[in-house]
Amino acid sequence: xxxxxxxxxxxxxxxxxxxxxxxxxxxxxxxxxxxxxxxxxxxxxxxxxxxxxxxxxxxxxxxxxxxxxxxxxxxxxxxxxxxxxxxxxxxxxxxxxxxxxxxxxxxxxxxxxxxxxxxxxxxxxxxxxxxxxxxxxxxxxxxxxxxxxxxxxxxxxxxxxxxxxxxxxxxxxxxxxxxxxxxxxxxxxxxxxxxxxxxxxxxxxxxxxxxxxxxxxxxxxxxxxxxxxxxxxxxxxxxxxxxxxxxxxxxxxxxxxxxx
Amino acid sequence: xxxxxxxxxxxxxxxxxxxxxxxxxxxxxxxxxxxxxxxxxxxxxxxxxxxxxxxxxxxxxxxxxxxxxxxxxxxxxxxxxxxxxxxxxxxxxxxxxxxxxxxxxxxxxxxxxxxxxxxxxxxxxxxxxxxxxxxxxxxxxxxxxxxxxxxxxxxxxxxxxxxxxxxxxxxxxxxxxxxxxxxxxxxxxxxxxxxxxxxxxxxxxxxxxxxxxxxxxxxxxxxxxxxxxxxxxxxxxxxxxxxxxxxxxxxxxxxxxxxxxxxxxxxxx
Lengths: 260, 269
Ligand SMILES: Nc1ncnc2c1ncn2[C@@H]1O[C@H](COP(=O)(O)OP(=O)(O)O)[C@@H](O)[C@H]1O
Ligand SMILES: [Mg+2]
Hints:
The structure holds 2 protein chains of 2 kinds.
Chain A: E1 13-24, E2 27-38, E3 42-46, H1 53-60, E4 68-73, E5 76-77, H2 82-87, E6 89-92, H3 104-114, H4 119-132, H5 148-160, E7 166-170, H6 178-195, E8 198-203, E9 214-219, E10 222-227, H7 229-236, H8 241-250, E11 258-259
Parallel strand pairs in A: 3-8, 3-9, 6-7, 7-8, 10-11
Antiparallel strand pairs in A: 1-2, 1-4, 4-5, 9-10
Helix pairs in contact in A: 3-4, 7-8
Chain B: H1 3-23, H2 25-46, H3 64-94, H4 96-101, H5 107-135, H6 142-169, H7 176-189, H8 197-202, H9 206-214, H10 216-228, H11 234-254
Bound molecules: adenosine-5'-diphosphate and magnesium ion.
The site of adenosine-5'-diphosphate has 11 residues of chain A, from strand 2 and helix 1.
Protein backbone atom coordinates (compact mmCIF):
# COMPACT_ATOMS: atom_id res chain seq x y z
CA UNK A 1 0.00 0.00 0.00
CA UNK A 2 2.88 2.34 0.52
CA UNK A 3 3.40 4.28 -2.65
CA UNK A 4 5.05 7.28 -1.12
CA UNK A 5 7.92 7.14 -3.54
CA UNK A 6 5.49 8.28 -6.20
CA UNK A 7 4.11 11.18 -4.29
CA UNK A 8 4.99 14.80 -4.61
CA UNK A 9 7.39 14.63 -7.43
CA UNK A 10 8.63 18.12 -7.95
CA UNK A 11 7.82 17.78 -11.62
CA UNK A 12 5.84 20.09 -13.80
CA UNK A 13 2.10 20.37 -13.15
CA UNK A 14 -0.01 19.00 -16.00
CA UNK A 15 -3.21 20.28 -14.47
CA UNK A 16 -3.82 23.32 -12.33
CA UNK A 17 -7.32 24.06 -11.12
CA UNK A 18 -7.65 27.33 -9.22
CA UNK A 19 -10.75 28.46 -7.30
CA UNK A 20 -13.14 26.90 -9.77
CA UNK A 21 -16.87 27.15 -9.12
CA UNK A 22 -19.86 26.03 -11.14
CA UNK A 23 -23.56 26.34 -10.47
CA UNK A 24 -26.57 24.85 -12.23
CA UNK A 25 -29.14 27.54 -11.60
CA UNK A 26 -29.13 27.95 -7.83
CA UNK A 27 -27.47 24.64 -7.07
CA UNK A 28 -23.75 24.97 -6.55
CA UNK A 29 -22.20 21.86 -8.10
CA UNK A 30 -18.60 22.94 -7.47
CA UNK A 31 -17.45 25.42 -4.87
CA UNK A 32 -14.00 27.01 -5.05
CA UNK A 33 -12.08 23.93 -6.09
CA UNK A 34 -8.29 24.22 -6.17
CA UNK A 35 -6.09 21.27 -7.01
CA UNK A 36 -3.05 20.29 -8.99
CA UNK A 37 -1.75 17.18 -10.72
CA UNK A 38 1.89 16.64 -11.59
CA UNK A 39 3.32 14.60 -14.43
CA UNK A 40 2.81 10.82 -14.07
CA UNK A 41 0.83 11.12 -10.86
CA UNK A 42 -2.18 8.92 -10.22
CA UNK A 43 -4.74 11.07 -8.47
CA UNK A 44 -8.01 9.64 -7.25
CA UNK A 45 -11.02 11.90 -7.17
CA UNK A 46 -13.19 10.32 -4.53
CA UNK A 47 -16.74 11.40 -3.89
CA UNK A 48 -20.23 9.97 -3.47
CA UNK A 49 -22.81 10.27 -6.25
CA UNK A 50 -23.73 13.88 -6.87
CA UNK A 51 -20.48 15.18 -5.38
CA UNK A 52 -19.61 17.05 -8.56
CA UNK A 53 -17.04 14.74 -10.14
CA UNK A 54 -18.62 14.68 -13.58
CA UNK A 55 -19.20 18.41 -13.45
CA UNK A 56 -15.49 18.91 -12.80
CA UNK A 57 -14.69 16.68 -15.78
CA UNK A 58 -17.03 18.68 -17.97
CA UNK A 59 -15.18 21.83 -17.02
CA UNK A 60 -11.80 20.19 -17.60
CA UNK A 61 -12.87 19.08 -21.08
CA UNK A 62 -14.40 22.39 -22.07
CA UNK A 63 -17.96 21.08 -22.37
CA UNK A 64 -18.94 23.67 -19.79
CA UNK A 65 -17.19 26.81 -18.72
CA UNK A 66 -16.56 27.49 -15.03
CA UNK A 67 -18.41 30.41 -13.45
CA UNK A 68 -15.09 31.58 -12.08
CA UNK A 69 -11.56 30.39 -11.48
CA UNK A 70 -9.12 29.00 -14.00
CA UNK A 71 -8.17 25.62 -15.42
CA UNK A 72 -4.72 25.23 -16.96
CA UNK A 73 -3.90 22.01 -18.77
CA UNK A 74 -0.25 21.65 -19.70
CA UNK A 75 0.19 25.41 -19.86
CA UNK A 76 -2.98 26.03 -21.84
CA UNK A 77 -6.00 27.71 -20.31
CA UNK A 78 -9.08 25.71 -21.33
CA UNK A 79 -11.09 28.91 -21.56
CA UNK A 80 -8.86 30.65 -24.06
CA UNK A 81 -6.92 27.84 -25.74
CA UNK A 82 -9.45 25.01 -25.72
CA UNK A 83 -8.14 23.35 -28.86
CA UNK A 84 -4.57 23.07 -27.61
CA UNK A 85 -5.62 22.10 -24.12
CA UNK A 86 -7.85 19.35 -25.52
CA UNK A 87 -5.04 17.99 -27.67
CA UNK A 88 -3.18 17.08 -24.47
CA UNK A 89 -5.89 15.19 -22.61
CA UNK A 90 -7.36 11.73 -23.03
CA UNK A 91 -10.90 11.25 -21.79
CA UNK A 92 -12.98 8.27 -20.74
CA UNK A 93 -16.46 9.55 -20.04
CA UNK A 94 -18.78 8.14 -17.43
CA UNK A 95 -21.24 7.35 -20.22
CA UNK A 96 -19.89 5.26 -23.07
CA UNK A 97 -19.28 7.13 -26.29
CA UNK A 98 -18.44 4.27 -28.64
CA UNK A 99 -20.46 3.63 -31.78
CA UNK A 100 -21.77 0.17 -31.02
CA UNK A 101 -22.31 -0.79 -34.65
CA UNK A 102 -18.81 0.06 -35.77
CA UNK A 103 -15.85 -2.24 -35.27
CA UNK A 104 -13.23 -1.57 -32.64
CA UNK A 105 -10.84 -0.52 -35.38
CA UNK A 106 -13.32 1.88 -36.97
CA UNK A 107 -14.12 3.50 -33.63
CA UNK A 108 -10.44 4.05 -32.96
CA UNK A 109 -9.76 5.37 -36.46
CA UNK A 110 -12.58 7.90 -36.09
CA UNK A 111 -10.72 9.20 -33.08
CA UNK A 112 -7.28 9.37 -34.73
CA UNK A 113 -8.86 11.18 -37.68
CA UNK A 114 -10.43 13.72 -35.37
CA UNK A 115 -6.99 14.20 -33.87
CA UNK A 116 -5.29 14.53 -37.22
CA UNK A 117 -3.00 11.51 -36.85
CA UNK A 118 -1.93 10.18 -40.24
CA UNK A 119 -2.98 6.78 -41.45
CA UNK A 120 0.24 4.88 -40.95
CA UNK A 121 0.93 6.28 -37.52
CA UNK A 122 -2.69 5.67 -36.60
CA UNK A 123 -2.46 2.00 -37.58
CA UNK A 124 0.71 1.59 -35.58
CA UNK A 125 -0.71 3.12 -32.47
CA UNK A 126 -4.02 1.30 -32.66
CA UNK A 127 -2.19 -2.01 -32.96
CA UNK A 128 0.07 -1.24 -30.05
CA UNK A 129 -2.72 -0.18 -27.74
CA UNK A 130 -4.91 -3.15 -28.60
CA UNK A 131 -2.00 -5.53 -28.20
CA UNK A 132 -1.27 -4.23 -24.75
CA UNK A 133 -4.91 -4.68 -23.83
CA UNK A 134 -5.15 -8.16 -25.38
CA UNK A 135 -7.82 -7.03 -27.78
CA UNK A 136 -5.92 -7.13 -31.05
CA UNK A 137 -7.62 -10.35 -32.17
CA UNK A 138 -10.97 -8.58 -31.97
CA UNK A 139 -10.08 -5.46 -33.92
CA UNK A 140 -12.69 -6.26 -36.59
CA UNK A 141 -15.47 -7.16 -34.17
CA UNK A 142 -18.25 -4.68 -33.58
CA UNK A 143 -18.17 -2.96 -30.23
CA UNK A 144 -21.67 -4.26 -29.54
CA UNK A 145 -20.27 -7.79 -29.30
CA UNK A 146 -17.84 -6.89 -26.51
CA UNK A 147 -18.26 -7.41 -22.78
CA UNK A 148 -18.61 -4.35 -20.56
CA UNK A 149 -15.01 -4.67 -19.42
CA UNK A 150 -13.71 -4.85 -22.96
CA UNK A 151 -15.79 -1.87 -24.05
CA UNK A 152 -14.13 0.12 -21.29
CA UNK A 153 -10.75 -1.08 -22.47
CA UNK A 154 -11.49 0.12 -25.99
CA UNK A 155 -12.42 3.52 -24.59
CA UNK A 156 -9.18 3.56 -22.66
CA UNK A 157 -7.21 2.61 -25.77
CA UNK A 158 -8.92 5.41 -27.64
CA UNK A 159 -8.13 7.96 -24.95
CA UNK A 160 -4.43 7.08 -25.26
CA UNK A 161 -4.06 7.16 -29.04
CA UNK A 162 -3.06 10.80 -29.26
CA UNK A 163 -0.55 10.28 -26.44
CA UNK A 164 -1.98 12.68 -23.89
CA UNK A 165 -0.06 13.86 -20.85
CA UNK A 166 -3.21 13.77 -18.76
CA UNK A 167 -5.79 11.03 -18.70
CA UNK A 168 -9.25 11.77 -17.28
CA UNK A 169 -11.33 8.78 -16.27
CA UNK A 170 -14.82 9.38 -14.94
CA UNK A 171 -16.09 6.36 -13.02
CA UNK A 172 -14.54 4.17 -15.67
CA UNK A 173 -14.93 1.05 -13.57
CA UNK A 174 -18.64 1.41 -13.02
CA UNK A 175 -20.65 -1.69 -13.85
CA UNK A 176 -17.61 -3.95 -14.08
CA UNK A 177 -17.15 -7.11 -12.07
CA UNK A 178 -14.51 -6.96 -9.32
CA UNK A 179 -11.86 -8.76 -11.38
CA UNK A 180 -12.19 -6.50 -14.43
CA UNK A 181 -12.32 -3.52 -12.15
CA UNK A 182 -9.08 -4.45 -10.48
CA UNK A 183 -7.33 -5.19 -13.75
CA UNK A 184 -8.43 -1.83 -15.18
CA UNK A 185 -7.14 0.05 -12.15
CA UNK A 186 -3.84 -1.79 -12.29
CA UNK A 187 -3.47 -1.17 -15.99
CA UNK A 188 -4.02 2.54 -15.62
CA UNK A 189 -1.77 2.65 -12.57
CA UNK A 190 1.03 1.18 -14.68
CA UNK A 191 0.49 3.73 -17.43
CA UNK A 192 1.60 6.44 -15.05
CA UNK A 193 5.04 5.00 -14.50
CA UNK A 194 5.53 3.34 -17.90
CA UNK A 195 4.40 6.16 -20.09
CA UNK A 196 4.60 9.20 -17.93
CA UNK A 197 0.86 9.83 -18.07
CA UNK A 198 -0.87 11.66 -15.24
CA UNK A 199 -4.28 10.29 -14.32
CA UNK A 200 -7.32 11.79 -12.66
CA UNK A 201 -9.44 8.81 -11.66
CA UNK A 202 -12.92 9.68 -10.46
CA UNK A 203 -14.72 7.08 -8.41
CA UNK A 204 -17.07 6.59 -5.51
CA UNK A 205 -15.45 3.26 -4.64
CA UNK A 206 -12.96 3.61 -1.85
CA UNK A 207 -11.00 0.45 -2.58
CA UNK A 208 -9.83 1.89 -5.88
CA UNK A 209 -7.95 4.76 -4.28
CA UNK A 210 -5.66 2.89 -1.89
CA UNK A 211 -2.80 2.87 -4.32
CA UNK A 212 -3.20 6.41 -5.51
CA UNK A 213 -0.42 8.96 -5.17
CA UNK A 214 -2.98 11.43 -3.98
CA UNK A 215 -6.61 11.36 -2.97
CA UNK A 216 -8.85 14.31 -3.57
CA UNK A 217 -12.12 14.01 -1.65
CA UNK A 218 -15.12 15.83 -3.02
CA UNK A 219 -18.52 16.09 -1.36
CA UNK A 220 -21.43 18.39 -2.22
CA UNK A 221 -19.15 20.33 -4.54
CA UNK A 222 -16.59 21.05 -1.85
CA UNK A 223 -13.07 19.78 -1.66
CA UNK A 224 -12.63 18.08 1.72
CA UNK A 225 -9.13 16.67 1.35
CA UNK A 226 -6.21 16.66 -1.02
CA UNK A 227 -3.47 14.44 0.32
CA UNK A 228 -1.87 10.98 0.23
CA UNK A 229 -3.96 8.00 1.35
CA UNK A 230 -1.70 7.58 4.40
CA UNK A 231 -2.04 11.18 5.45
CA UNK A 232 -5.76 10.99 4.97
CA UNK A 233 -5.95 8.11 7.43
CA UNK A 234 -3.62 9.79 9.88
CA UNK A 235 -5.32 13.12 9.83
CA UNK A 236 -8.79 11.75 10.23
CA UNK A 237 -7.49 9.51 12.99
CA UNK A 238 -9.06 6.42 11.50
CA UNK A 239 -8.01 2.84 10.88
CA UNK A 240 -8.39 2.76 7.13
CA UNK A 241 -9.33 4.64 4.05
CA UNK A 242 -12.96 3.46 4.14
CA UNK A 243 -13.44 4.84 7.59
CA UNK A 244 -11.57 8.02 6.74
CA UNK A 245 -13.83 8.65 3.76
CA UNK A 246 -16.98 8.05 5.79
CA UNK A 247 -15.80 10.30 8.54
CA UNK A 248 -14.94 13.07 6.12
CA UNK A 249 -18.16 12.97 4.15
CA UNK A 250 -20.32 12.72 7.25
CA UNK A 251 -18.62 15.68 8.82
CA UNK A 252 -19.53 17.88 5.97
CA UNK A 253 -21.11 20.50 8.20
CA UNK A 254 -17.78 21.14 9.85
CA UNK A 255 -16.23 21.24 6.43
CA UNK A 256 -12.73 20.79 7.73
CA UNK A 257 -10.11 21.03 5.09
CA UNK A 258 -7.37 18.53 5.43
CA UNK A 259 -4.21 19.04 3.54
CA UNK A 260 -0.83 17.42 3.48
CA UNK B 1 -6.05 23.98 -37.13
CA UNK B 2 -3.96 22.46 -39.89
CA UNK B 3 -5.58 21.89 -43.27
CA UNK B 4 -4.62 18.22 -43.42
CA UNK B 5 -6.13 17.66 -39.99
CA UNK B 6 -9.31 19.50 -40.99
CA UNK B 7 -9.77 17.43 -44.14
CA UNK B 8 -9.03 14.16 -42.35
CA UNK B 9 -11.62 14.93 -39.70
CA UNK B 10 -14.19 15.99 -42.29
CA UNK B 11 -13.74 12.76 -44.23
CA UNK B 12 -14.14 10.77 -41.03
CA UNK B 13 -17.36 12.52 -40.04
CA UNK B 14 -18.88 12.26 -43.53
CA UNK B 15 -17.81 8.63 -43.69
CA UNK B 16 -19.49 7.91 -40.39
CA UNK B 17 -22.74 9.61 -41.43
CA UNK B 18 -22.88 7.77 -44.74
CA UNK B 19 -22.04 4.51 -43.03
CA UNK B 20 -24.86 5.09 -40.54
CA UNK B 21 -27.24 5.96 -43.36
CA UNK B 22 -26.41 2.78 -45.26
CA UNK B 23 -26.83 0.73 -42.09
CA UNK B 24 -30.32 2.10 -41.52
CA UNK B 25 -31.78 0.67 -44.68
CA UNK B 26 -35.24 1.96 -43.94
CA UNK B 27 -34.07 5.54 -44.00
CA UNK B 28 -33.58 5.88 -47.75
CA UNK B 29 -36.88 4.11 -48.31
CA UNK B 30 -38.86 6.42 -46.04
CA UNK B 31 -37.02 9.45 -47.41
CA UNK B 32 -38.35 8.50 -50.86
CA UNK B 33 -41.82 7.34 -49.89
CA UNK B 34 -42.92 10.75 -48.66
CA UNK B 35 -42.19 12.73 -51.85
CA UNK B 36 -43.27 9.79 -53.99
CA UNK B 37 -46.72 9.87 -52.39
CA UNK B 38 -47.01 13.57 -53.15
CA UNK B 39 -45.89 13.01 -56.71
CA UNK B 40 -47.92 9.93 -57.62
CA UNK B 41 -51.02 10.43 -55.52
CA UNK B 42 -51.47 14.06 -54.62
CA UNK B 43 -50.13 15.54 -57.84
CA UNK B 44 -51.97 13.11 -60.05
CA UNK B 45 -55.22 13.86 -58.28
CA UNK B 46 -54.72 17.60 -58.50
CA UNK B 47 -53.44 17.55 -62.05
CA UNK B 48 -56.61 19.00 -63.49
CA UNK B 49 -57.46 21.25 -60.58
CA UNK B 50 -54.18 23.08 -60.57
CA UNK B 51 -53.17 23.98 -64.08
CA UNK B 52 -49.89 25.81 -64.31
CA UNK B 53 -49.72 28.48 -66.96
CA UNK B 54 -46.56 29.72 -68.57
CA UNK B 55 -44.41 31.43 -65.96
CA UNK B 56 -40.78 31.77 -65.17
CA UNK B 57 -38.67 29.64 -65.41
CA UNK B 58 -40.98 27.52 -67.60
CA UNK B 59 -41.29 28.51 -71.25
CA UNK B 60 -44.25 26.27 -71.93
CA UNK B 61 -47.26 24.85 -70.16
CA UNK B 62 -46.22 22.17 -67.72
CA UNK B 63 -48.11 19.46 -65.95
CA UNK B 64 -48.55 19.76 -62.24
CA UNK B 65 -46.30 16.80 -61.54
CA UNK B 66 -43.42 18.60 -63.17
CA UNK B 67 -44.20 21.72 -61.20
CA UNK B 68 -43.92 20.13 -57.78
CA UNK B 69 -40.65 18.21 -58.29
CA UNK B 70 -38.45 21.09 -57.05
CA UNK B 71 -40.72 21.45 -54.04
CA UNK B 72 -40.40 17.75 -53.31
CA UNK B 73 -36.63 17.96 -53.66
CA UNK B 74 -36.88 20.79 -51.15
CA UNK B 75 -38.87 18.69 -48.71
CA UNK B 76 -36.25 15.95 -48.94
CA UNK B 77 -33.57 18.46 -48.01
CA UNK B 78 -35.75 19.91 -45.26
CA UNK B 79 -36.54 16.52 -43.79
CA UNK B 80 -32.98 15.32 -43.79
CA UNK B 81 -31.75 18.62 -42.38
CA UNK B 82 -34.14 18.30 -39.45
CA UNK B 83 -33.31 14.64 -38.98
CA UNK B 84 -29.59 15.37 -38.85
CA UNK B 85 -30.17 18.00 -36.21
CA UNK B 86 -32.34 15.66 -34.22
CA UNK B 87 -29.39 13.31 -34.38
CA UNK B 88 -27.38 16.11 -32.76
CA UNK B 89 -29.68 16.09 -29.79
CA UNK B 90 -29.68 12.31 -29.72
CA UNK B 91 -25.92 12.09 -30.16
CA UNK B 92 -25.47 14.53 -27.36
CA UNK B 93 -27.31 12.24 -25.04
CA UNK B 94 -25.65 9.14 -26.35
CA UNK B 95 -22.26 10.70 -25.90
CA UNK B 96 -21.01 10.70 -29.48
CA UNK B 97 -21.46 14.44 -29.58
CA UNK B 98 -19.23 14.66 -26.53
CA UNK B 99 -16.53 12.94 -28.49
CA UNK B 100 -16.79 15.57 -31.19
CA UNK B 101 -16.99 18.51 -28.84
CA UNK B 102 -13.87 17.39 -26.99
CA UNK B 103 -11.81 16.91 -30.16
CA UNK B 104 -8.99 19.38 -30.65
CA UNK B 105 -10.81 21.31 -33.38
CA UNK B 106 -12.58 24.66 -33.17
CA UNK B 107 -16.27 24.50 -32.33
CA UNK B 108 -17.39 26.25 -35.50
CA UNK B 109 -15.49 23.70 -37.55
CA UNK B 110 -17.06 20.76 -35.71
CA UNK B 111 -20.49 22.18 -36.49
CA UNK B 112 -19.51 22.85 -40.09
CA UNK B 113 -18.41 19.23 -40.45
CA UNK B 114 -21.77 18.08 -39.12
CA UNK B 115 -23.50 20.41 -41.56
CA UNK B 116 -21.48 19.18 -44.53
CA UNK B 117 -22.04 15.54 -43.61
CA UNK B 118 -25.79 16.15 -43.41
CA UNK B 119 -25.67 17.97 -46.74
CA UNK B 120 -23.97 15.04 -48.44
CA UNK B 121 -26.79 12.76 -47.28
CA UNK B 122 -29.45 15.25 -48.36
CA UNK B 123 -28.02 15.53 -51.84
CA UNK B 124 -27.70 11.76 -52.21
CA UNK B 125 -31.38 11.40 -51.30
CA UNK B 126 -32.37 14.18 -53.71
CA UNK B 127 -30.70 12.37 -56.59
CA UNK B 128 -32.27 9.08 -55.57
CA UNK B 129 -35.62 10.84 -55.92
CA UNK B 130 -34.66 12.22 -59.33
CA UNK B 131 -33.89 8.69 -60.45
CA UNK B 132 -37.36 7.71 -59.31
CA UNK B 133 -38.80 10.60 -61.33
CA UNK B 134 -36.87 9.47 -64.38
CA UNK B 135 -38.11 5.91 -64.01
CA UNK B 136 -41.69 7.15 -63.96
CA UNK B 137 -41.03 9.47 -66.88
CA UNK B 138 -41.71 12.80 -65.27
CA UNK B 139 -40.51 15.19 -67.95
CA UNK B 140 -37.55 17.02 -66.54
CA UNK B 141 -34.65 18.36 -68.59
CA UNK B 142 -31.58 16.13 -68.22
CA UNK B 143 -29.31 19.15 -68.05
CA UNK B 144 -31.22 20.12 -64.92
CA UNK B 145 -29.68 17.19 -63.08
CA UNK B 146 -26.38 18.94 -63.48
CA UNK B 147 -27.49 22.55 -63.02
CA UNK B 148 -29.48 21.74 -59.89
CA UNK B 149 -26.49 20.39 -57.99
CA UNK B 150 -25.15 23.71 -56.62
CA UNK B 151 -28.70 24.76 -55.71
CA UNK B 152 -29.31 21.47 -53.91
CA UNK B 153 -26.05 21.81 -51.99
CA UNK B 154 -26.70 25.38 -50.94
CA UNK B 155 -30.32 24.64 -50.04
CA UNK B 156 -29.37 21.54 -48.06
CA UNK B 157 -26.76 23.49 -46.12
CA UNK B 158 -29.17 26.28 -45.28
CA UNK B 159 -31.92 23.94 -44.12
CA UNK B 160 -29.36 21.92 -42.17
CA UNK B 161 -28.19 25.12 -40.51
CA UNK B 162 -31.78 25.87 -39.45
CA UNK B 163 -31.87 22.41 -37.92
CA UNK B 164 -28.55 22.97 -36.13
CA UNK B 165 -29.75 26.25 -34.70
CA UNK B 166 -33.03 24.66 -33.61
CA UNK B 167 -31.16 21.81 -31.93
CA UNK B 168 -29.67 24.37 -29.57
CA UNK B 169 -32.72 26.39 -28.73
CA UNK B 170 -35.80 24.28 -29.00
CA UNK B 171 -36.49 21.45 -26.61
CA UNK B 172 -39.54 20.46 -28.60
CA UNK B 173 -37.20 19.14 -31.22
CA UNK B 174 -36.47 16.14 -29.08
CA UNK B 175 -39.68 14.71 -30.38
CA UNK B 176 -39.94 14.48 -34.09
CA UNK B 177 -43.70 14.92 -34.22
CA UNK B 178 -43.23 18.37 -32.70
CA UNK B 179 -40.72 19.28 -35.37
CA UNK B 180 -43.07 18.04 -38.07
CA UNK B 181 -45.97 20.11 -36.78
CA UNK B 182 -44.19 23.31 -35.93
CA UNK B 183 -41.33 23.46 -38.40
CA UNK B 184 -41.52 21.11 -41.35
CA UNK B 185 -45.22 21.31 -42.28
CA UNK B 186 -45.63 25.09 -41.99
CA UNK B 187 -42.45 25.67 -43.99
CA UNK B 188 -43.59 23.24 -46.64
CA UNK B 189 -47.20 24.35 -47.00
CA UNK B 190 -46.58 28.09 -46.80
CA UNK B 191 -44.15 28.10 -49.68
CA UNK B 192 -43.98 27.81 -53.43
CA UNK B 193 -43.49 24.07 -53.21
CA UNK B 194 -47.08 23.05 -54.00
CA UNK B 195 -48.42 26.05 -55.92
CA UNK B 196 -47.04 29.24 -57.40
CA UNK B 197 -47.23 32.17 -55.02
CA UNK B 198 -49.40 34.27 -57.31
CA UNK B 199 -52.20 31.82 -56.58
CA UNK B 200 -52.13 33.00 -52.98
CA UNK B 201 -52.14 36.58 -54.14
CA UNK B 202 -55.08 35.94 -56.46
CA UNK B 203 -56.96 34.31 -53.65
CA UNK B 204 -56.49 37.46 -51.61
CA UNK B 205 -54.59 35.57 -48.89
CA UNK B 206 -52.27 38.48 -48.33
CA UNK B 207 -50.78 37.35 -45.06
CA UNK B 208 -50.07 33.87 -46.34
CA UNK B 209 -48.58 35.36 -49.44
CA UNK B 210 -46.31 37.56 -47.37
CA UNK B 211 -45.28 34.67 -45.12
CA UNK B 212 -44.54 32.49 -48.11
CA UNK B 213 -42.45 35.20 -49.71
CA UNK B 214 -40.29 35.52 -46.64
CA UNK B 215 -40.14 31.79 -46.00
CA UNK B 216 -36.54 30.69 -46.61
CA UNK B 217 -37.87 27.35 -47.81
CA UNK B 218 -39.67 29.10 -50.69
CA UNK B 219 -36.32 30.41 -51.84
CA UNK B 220 -34.67 27.01 -51.62
CA UNK B 221 -37.44 25.66 -53.85
CA UNK B 222 -37.24 28.58 -56.27
CA UNK B 223 -33.46 28.34 -56.46
CA UNK B 224 -33.75 24.65 -57.39
CA UNK B 225 -36.68 25.28 -59.76
CA UNK B 226 -34.79 27.93 -61.71
CA UNK B 227 -31.53 26.03 -61.66
CA UNK B 228 -33.25 23.03 -63.17
CA UNK B 229 -33.90 25.08 -66.29
CA UNK B 230 -30.43 26.54 -66.36
CA UNK B 231 -31.51 29.84 -64.80
CA UNK B 232 -30.08 31.67 -61.83
CA UNK B 233 -32.55 33.20 -59.40
CA UNK B 234 -30.45 35.86 -57.75
CA UNK B 235 -33.07 36.88 -55.17
CA UNK B 236 -33.44 33.32 -53.94
CA UNK B 237 -29.69 32.84 -53.99
CA UNK B 238 -29.28 35.94 -51.84
CA UNK B 239 -31.96 34.90 -49.36
CA UNK B 240 -30.66 31.34 -49.04
CA UNK B 241 -27.06 32.45 -48.58
CA UNK B 242 -28.07 35.08 -46.05
CA UNK B 243 -30.14 32.58 -44.07
CA UNK B 244 -27.31 30.05 -44.16
CA UNK B 245 -24.95 32.56 -42.59
CA UNK B 246 -27.48 33.71 -39.99
CA UNK B 247 -28.60 30.27 -38.86
CA UNK B 248 -25.12 28.81 -38.85
CA UNK B 249 -23.90 31.73 -36.74
CA UNK B 250 -26.78 31.19 -34.33
CA UNK B 251 -25.79 27.54 -34.03
CA UNK B 252 -22.13 28.38 -33.40
CA UNK B 253 -23.20 30.94 -30.84
CA UNK B 254 -25.48 28.43 -29.16
CA UNK B 255 -22.84 25.73 -28.97
CA UNK B 256 -20.27 28.05 -27.44
CA UNK B 257 -19.55 26.64 -23.97
CA UNK B 258 -19.41 30.20 -22.63
CA UNK B 259 -23.15 30.29 -23.21
CA UNK B 260 -23.46 27.13 -21.16
CA UNK B 261 -25.93 25.73 -23.65
CA UNK B 262 -24.04 22.59 -24.51
CA UNK B 263 -25.31 19.41 -22.99
CA UNK B 264 -27.97 21.42 -21.25
CA UNK B 265 -30.50 18.78 -22.03
CA UNK B 266 -28.18 15.89 -21.30
CA UNK B 267 -28.77 14.01 -18.11
CA UNK B 268 -26.19 14.81 -15.45
CA UNK B 269 -23.43 12.30 -15.10
N1 LIG C 1 -26.73 19.32 -16.49
C1 LIG C 1 -27.10 19.50 -15.19
N2 LIG C 1 -28.13 20.30 -14.89
C2 LIG C 1 -28.51 20.50 -13.60
N3 LIG C 1 -27.92 19.92 -12.54
C3 LIG C 1 -26.88 19.11 -12.77
C4 LIG C 1 -26.41 18.85 -14.11
N4 LIG C 1 -25.36 18.00 -14.04
C5 LIG C 1 -25.19 17.73 -12.72
N5 LIG C 1 -26.08 18.39 -11.96
C6 LIG C 1 -26.17 18.36 -10.48
O1 LIG C 1 -24.91 18.73 -9.97
C7 LIG C 1 -24.51 17.91 -8.89
C8 LIG C 1 -23.21 17.20 -9.21
O2 LIG C 1 -23.45 16.23 -10.20
P1 LIG C 1 -22.29 15.39 -10.88
O3 LIG C 1 -21.21 16.30 -11.27
O4 LIG C 1 -22.89 14.56 -11.96
O5 LIG C 1 -21.81 14.47 -9.67
P2 LIG C 1 -21.02 13.09 -9.69
O6 LIG C 1 -20.44 12.89 -11.03
O7 LIG C 1 -20.00 13.24 -8.62
O8 LIG C 1 -22.01 12.02 -9.34
C9 LIG C 1 -25.67 16.96 -8.64
O9 LIG C 1 -26.44 17.49 -7.62
C10 LIG C 1 -26.41 16.95 -9.96
O10 LIG C 1 -27.78 16.70 -9.75
MG1 LIG D 1 -20.54 11.34 -12.29
